[in-house]
Design goal:
It is built from 2 helices and no strands. By secondary structure, the chain is mostly helical. It has a domain at 34-60.
């Protein structure tokens, strides 16, 4: 069962406090998930990020 947690506000400068917020956010999201569910969620997020990176690379060409 997925827990709905509000996404943290990340500052423009992306400092250590922002990293802490992201880690706490992910810990809350992963609470109660199995390791396989966590891996699947991480892979889905990575796939989204890779697609964004591909689009940016194509835009530069």
């Amino acid at each position: 069962m997925a827990v709905v947690v509000e996404e943290p506000e990340i500052s423009e400068r992306f400092d250590l406090d922002d990293i802490r917020k992201i880690r706490e956010y992910n810990a809350a999201r992963y609470e109660g998930m199995t390791p396989a569910e966590i891996v699947a969620d991480t892979k889905a997020g990575a796939a989204d990020l890779l697609e964004i990176m591909r689009k940016r690379k194509m835009a530069k060409i």
